[in-house]
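INTERNAL AUDIT FORM
Audit reference: QA-55
Scope: verify that the stored structure record matches its stored sequence.
Auditor: D.O.
Record contents follow.
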Amino acid sequence: MAILEIEVEDARPVAAHCDDAFLHVTLADGRRLAAPLWWYPRLASAPASALAEVELMPMGIHWPAIDEDISVASILRGEKAPGACAPSEQ
């Protein structure tokens, strides 16, 4: 089994935002991640005002208006939220 090792300081989020299709996260080391918004049903169904209010934490991102937390490690591993369905599966 492979283990994903993450250097915590380098993987710290410095920016995050959602558009109509993706969650975009910029890390301290310059990497830019984009995950499909359908991976996170709570984000996908949230109003733009709730998505605009984002808090960056050392290990992830928090949206207080919808009480959603997503870790950088889970994005890097490609983990979807429980119950997430691709648009073609709905």
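Auditor finding: record pair retrieved intact. The first strand starts at residue 13 and ends at 18.
Action required: none
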